[in-house]
Predict the structure.
Amino acid sequence: MKKGAAVALLSCLVLLPFLLLGFGLLGEASPLAWAGLSVLALLAGLGLATALTLALRLQRQTADLAHRQEALTRAHTLLEEQKQELHLYAGAAQSAKMGYFAWDLVEDRCIRCSEEYAALHGVTLKQYFEGDVDLQSDADFVHPDDRADYLSICAETLRKQQPLDIQYRIVTKQGHVRHVRELEHSFITRNGVPVRSEGMIQDITDLRRSETLLLAAMNAGAAVFAIFDPDDRLILANPAYILLFGEKSVEIKTGTHYETIVRGTAAAGSIQGSKEEIETWVQTRLARREHPAKGLKFQSEEGRWFEVDDVVLDDGHVFTMGADITERIAMESRLQSAQRMEAVGQLAAGMAHDFNNLLEIIHGNAELLSDRADEEAKMLEAIQSAALRAGELTQNLLTFSSRQQLRPQTLALDPLVRDLVRQFRRRLDKKIEIKTEVEANLPPITADPGQLENALTNLMSNAVQAMSDGGALTISCRHFEQDTAKIANLTKGKQYLSVAVSDSGTGMEPEILAQAFDPFFTTDPDSKRSGLGLSMVYGFAQQSGGQIELVSHPGIGTEARLILPVAERLEKQSAALRQPSDTGPSDAAPSPGVGERILLLDDDDAVRAVLKAHLKRLGYRIAEASTPERALTIMAQEEIDLALVDIMLSDDYSGPQFVDQARQSQPGLPVIYISGYSADRAALDPRTPLLTKPFTRHVLAHALTSVLKREPEREPATN
């Protein structure tokens, strides 16, 4: 009203000038004219007021319409965003195989559910919404074996007014079994009456299948595996874990606390060690969250070794993984033993080399004195004999260290073993029974026959010594099945034979067995034996490309198994391995020298003096040198008939290197090598003899005669 009056007043004010103008024009017109003019002015003012009112109303309605349009646009945009978000949620739910549902518990009908929920049960949305499926028939989808537990848990959570989180199996309308996880929340009135339930269900069949495969893989091996939740309660453990920690201590099952398992294991004596060591193990295991185990080793009651690792996840779960490492520990022990033997072997080789040089001096000087001291001949003979026996001892050391020169040949085991047993039987006490077991049609082997006989004699002597009250000694030869054993130094795919010497004697304790191959080790301190017997057999086996196994049980006996390679390319290999110097000197007196010029190169002054005296006695002329440089100078000044050269001249210069240089100025120079230990034949010219210190004048004389009478060596022709 106020706005209308204001508009009318405004209209009158607008028309007033026009009225005044009209009055001026009319002048003294009649009253009727004045009345008409007034009516017209009034009507015009009212019309103008109405028009202005309508214009204002139209403006207001237009502004309101614009606001509504803007609000409608915003609502449409929000609706589109919600649709997209809902689409994303639906896609995520579909990818995760999840469906949602809502039930009216009062009317017993489904009021809302997704296609995934219906499809998971093998029915359609229409069947749910049209009442074809009620709560009872929905529960009938639960697997018969899981149904009782499912209904019980649902009733319990409903009674306690708690959310439901349960995993179970369902059987679809088509008969397919699916594993599902259900999350559900019920709405309850103040009177405690449930009226509606809502939730979601997820298909976890693939997850359960993966868990089953993982468990099968865990159960198939010897690995130890367990998972604990953030409260240190067991979620999952494989049989190996239960067997190790729970067989004699506590019942291990889902929910068992970790500390209960650890303390129960320690209390039951399932872990070996002293009281303090076991308590340390307990405290270490209990502190695994702060200090996760990395390669923690411990020994079970049965003596087996285990290694455990802990992985603590960010969410507090702990994975415990372990393995039985008994075989690995044994292998590491064997490796350490082999490394120890190798180190001792290197030491023994060095000692033998220096010792042989000393023996050469002792024996050589004694031999020279015996030429002119008839009255002391017996004493000098004793010195020479002792030096030769000491030389044999160093050869055993070299055999142990795999540096003894071997003369491998193609051998048939059967006749060699039977002949050796026949000879050994003559020395046996009648209380000991000896027998042989040789597998038929055994292929020949490659080995040094003399060293093989020595090795078998050592093994048989040890066996007899272990049977002081009598017993049975058995020597057996058979194929060795390499793929059933874990033995170092054997080539995969290669054939081997084994010669086993077993006795029914006292046997050895494990700590004794572990030292059996150590040099100078003996179980009989009163024995006059050197303690190098088994060490020598070990070195012979290693150098021959084989191995030796020793198995012993206290009170039952011992078996030593010598493993040797089967011969390959028999005749060719055998011929290649036999060198001209391998045949020993004959008993016939060698021919004396006739003044041939011998170059003697040895860095040991005392050894050189002895050899020089021997060469003079044998009728040779000598040019001696202590260094390669001096020897090359001599060769530049005169013709040399033969060079007698020590193999080890210095750390960085060898006898073969000197010979290569010497033959540049005098091609075809005859050479004899001498050494404190037998060098590897592969590093020497196979046509060049090698004399191992100490050696007698007789041996030296035969070597000189053999080489000097040989046809001169021709250098290969070159184009």
Q: What stands out?
A: Confidence is low (pLDDT under 50) at residues 570-585, 711-719. Residues 628 and 658 are 6 Å apart (CA to CA). Residues 31-95 form the longest helix (65 residues).
